[in-house]
Amino acid sequence: MKIQVNEQPLELTDNITIEQLLIHLGKPLIGSAVAVNQSIITRTKWTETIINEGDKISLFQAIAGG
Fold first, then answer.
1. Which of 1, 18, 29, 32 is 20 to 30 A away from residue 64, measured at CA?
2. What is the domain count for the chain?
């Protein structure tokens, strides 16, 4: 299955959830934000939202500052 993550191609062997993708990529679950096809997916939906062929995933990391 081919998807894009932050505009970079990525090939996966199986359908996975957003949470599984973050773990696969080594991204932190806390402080991350995710959009699938330009729609923000809330953290409560990460375990049930399945990534599909051709999806465009945008990952963001919260940055503290002042």
1. 18
2. 1
